Amino acid sequence: MKTRHRVVVIGGGFGGLAAAKALRRAPVQVTLVDRQAHHLFQPLLYQVATGVLSQGNVAPPLRDILRHQHNTDVVLAEVDEVDLERRIVRCALLDRTWELAYDSLIVAAGSAQSYFGHDEFADHAPGMKTVDDALEVRGRIFGAFELAELEEDAARRAAWMTFVVVGAGPTGVEMAGQIAELSRYSLRSNFSRIDSATARIVLLDAAPRILQSFDEHLAQRAAAKLGQMGVEIRTSTLVTGMDAAGIDLQTRNGAERLAAMTKVWSAGVQASPLGRLLAAQAGVEPMRSGQIPVESDCTLPGHPEVFVVGDLMALGRLPGLAEVAIQSGRHAASQIRRRLAGDAQARPFRYRDLGSLAAVSRYYAIGERGRTRVWGFAGWLIWLVVHLTFLTGFKNRASALFHWTISFFGRSRPERTITAQQVFARQALRGGALRG
Amino acid sequence: MKTRHRVVVIGGGFGGLAAAKALRRAPVQVTLVDRQAHHLFQPLLYQVATGVLSQGNVAPPLRDILRHQHNTDVVLAEVDEVDLERRIVRCALLDRTWELAYDSLIVAAGSAQSYFGHDEFADHAPGMKTVDDALEVRGRIFGAFELAELEEDAARRAAWMTFVVVGAGPTGVEMAGQIAELSRYSLRSNFSRIDSATARIVLLDAAPRILQSFDEHLAQRAAAKLGQMGVEIRTSTLVTGMDAAGIDLQTRNGAERLAAMTKVWSAGVQASPLGRLLAAQAGVEPMRSGQIPVESDCTLPGHPEVFVVGDLMALGRLPGLAEVAIQSGRHAASQIRRRLAGDAQARPFRYRDLGSLAAVSRYYAIGERGRTRVWGFAGWLIWLVVHLTFLTGFKNRASALFHWTISFFGRSRPERTITAQQVFARQALRGGALRG
Q1: What CATH code is carried by the domain that includes residue A153?
Q2: Which residue of B has its CA nearest to A419?
Q3: DSSP secondary structure string, A71-90?
């Protein structure tokens, strides 16, 4: 008996999960490898950080999602290496290492936060890419109000009450909007010595405007809404340094220091290091971001059995969106299915733009699709429906809707709990002198 | 103008929170000090550990609970010392220390896990007293199945599939029951190489029977139900040693070694160290458990202005229940109110026994109140109503009910997400050689 065609999928994010699901009825044996046990609905991670959602809402276990898919195994492991010649993926977990042989490989390893060469910023400004990041940011945000409440020195109190979000893409905008909402509404009457509503929220970007990927008029509307909510927008502003107590900026008017204990980084991404490893073996030059240039059908040049999808793939000027990852993952799966059915012709991947959305505050979002633009409450309703539809699994959808009802109508935050390991101890360890 | 009577409450658990709430309309200024920002509904902590509830469901922020209580401040700090003579509480947070002066003091500092002199067990068998504990246990339980799935050696796989719960009080019984449920039902079809339903769950106790505080017939019913679910009960069994890979036991038949990677400790509690500090100053002898013997009105001998309530209080043979803490906290508050109204007579605290409950599995709980006993589905309905009633805040009630609907009807676990910091890294660091 001939063994089944073996497909290894590296990464259980949007791209890898979509590929694995699309192979459900194919005559293949699928192995999905990820170093986390869960899929992650990254577009809502900022809501975990700001106390709206629990980690369970956005990070369902991969095994549970795929439990009824009998041709698919989930392996929890870190991929160390891919041997393109022997067609083997080397994995490790703790002190164990092992090999997975493949006939087809789908690499959907995604991207990590990029600090543009300043990795030391990571200690002071966590990113927004993992559940750990989100819980740490949650601890820092809510912890900052606690410490402001205790602080007697006015300047230090102001530093605890200042929140800087670096990077004004959708995640940065959503994060700044949520910090504004929680300080203005959710935390109201919680403190005795401080007025949480006076928190200063600064949204920085090196670009001349926020939401660069959006239409300019929409971005202006979002900026106006953020301004109304009290978010200070600083564009054309570069971050040149950072420490526990503040952030150094380079603006058009010269250098400036901002005293701020809490910083969040959402400025850039870099492709998974697996990209460079693969590129070197295949003899292709990776992009500066670490992405791999692929053929029009998403395959690695010279290796039609290897697909690179999602954030790791450089193809045209496709943006780093969940939707690109999902569609390219499905494309890889359909190519594999076709080949096994005897159709060897490479079909180019065509991205169907479903548009993009950004939620500025409760009841206010912007969105565009082709030439259609939407904003305000209408945009927010679309945001709500789209996010509910795309959340994985009925129970996560129901649970998120429930949490949103509490948060948006009640202006309350059901998930504010911070643990000892998240907050003060870690902040003290990392930041050195907390008192600046 | 005379300043208001100052009440300092140490601890935001059941006792301290009940006391603070009962002072809502009293002509006093209340300061509630806790080292955590949240209250904790400890009786449901085992559900956070087993993926049913999120931490937000059981740990609402103290500030949020008390936000409309204008005579009350919440201070996040660790209490280092109480100066009974000067009537001052010394607090610290990070590198700051400060003093809180009181006219009346309510000490509700509660209890921590006790390892009966074997603190080294804590590395291998986390307790069940804090949100951090629960999240760590969650990571260990779900992580053990992941590692069993990867393990090729049969003996080691069996060790990953063996779960030992030490201590067969209500928490131990509930924990063992939940591990059985999740392995038999929730994780079904999640794994390819292992059958999660074959997990071995061992519930140990040094006493000759489980649920010592309950009526013997009820405990027998609970034991029979646990047996049906596949939980092995080992009574009259002492733990003599522990390491990453297993646990050493002393039974009636001699010494025995059990290979088990996952251990949970719910065997004993010890009073907060604050108890001994207070006892030394007041010149009273603390109990062996660290509890402080108090007068019949819950005051510290010789110090009618200091109340000791909840787990820290030794008064008659009252059990360490949430209800005792709540009632004694309220009693302290009412004594303070009466004194301020000119009634100086000390009234003894009388505990009104509302009974106790333990949930063995979904749809099966036992309960007793006075001579009335209840078990099975009827017991479970009472368990459900009581826990919903006592959960703090409408949104936590609604949210818990929602999670229970998913978990009990659907047999699913909405909160299985484990973070990097919780699991493998920590386990590896702590346990040394994970491969035993």
Answers
A1: 3.50.50.100
A2: B132
A3: TEEEEE-EEEEEETTTTEEE
Helices (H), B90-153: 131-150
Say what the pLDDT of residue B235 is.
97
**The domain spanning residue A24 has which CATH number?**
3.50.50.60
Test B399 with A395 for CB contact under 8 angstroms: no
For residues B165 and B245, state if they share a domain: yes
d(CA B7, CA B256): 53
Report yes or no on B11 lying in a domain.
Answer: yes
Are residues B133 and B228 both part of a single domain? Answer: yes
Give Cα A145 distance to the centre of its chain: 25
Of A51, A95, A421, nearest to B132 by CB-CB distance is A421
Residues B133, B185: one domain?
Answer: yes
Q: Where are the beta strands (DSSP E) in A35-178?
A: 72-76, 78-83, 88-93, 96-101, 104-107, 111-113, 162-166
Q: Is A296 on the interface with B (CB under 8 A)?
A: no
Q: Is residue A50 within 8 Å of A361, Cβ to Cβ?
A: no
> With a cut of 70, which residues of chain A have pLDDT below it?
1-2, 420-436
Q: Both tokens of residue B246?
A: 């297993």
Residue B14 lies in domain: 5-35+77-113+269-340
Is the domain of A149 the same as that of A184? yes
Strand pairing partners for B307?
Answer: B106, B299
What local confidence, expressed as pLDDT, does residue B421 receive?
A: 55
**What is the rounded distance in angstroms from the CA atom of residue B170 to the CA atom of residue B43?**
9
B218 and B282: one domain?
A: no
Looking at the domain assignment, is residue B130 inside a domain?
Answer: yes
Residues of B belonging to the active site: 174
Q: In this structure, is residue A72 part of a structural domain?
A: no
| Burial of residue A24 (number of CB atoms within 10 Å: 0-12, 13-18, 19+) | middle
CA pair distance A134, A57, nearest whole angstrom: 13
Instruction: Kindly state whether residues B259 and B127 are assigned to the same domain.
Output: yes
Could you tell me the pTM of the whole model?
Answer: 0.93
CA B390/CA A412 separation, integer angstroms: 20
ipTM for the predicted complex comes to 0.91
Q: Do B149 and B278 sit in the same domain of this protein? A: no
- A49 domain residue, yes or no: no
Rounded-to-integer distance, Cα A7 and Cα A333, Å:
9
What secondary structure does DSSP assign to A356-396, as a single string? Answer: EEEEEETTEEEEEETTEEEEHHHHHHHHHHHHHHHSSSHHH
pLDDT of residue B282: 94
Quick check: B396 contacting A, CB < 8 Å? yes
The two three-digit tokens of residue A278, written as one number: 């693969």
Residues B107 and B123 in one domain: no
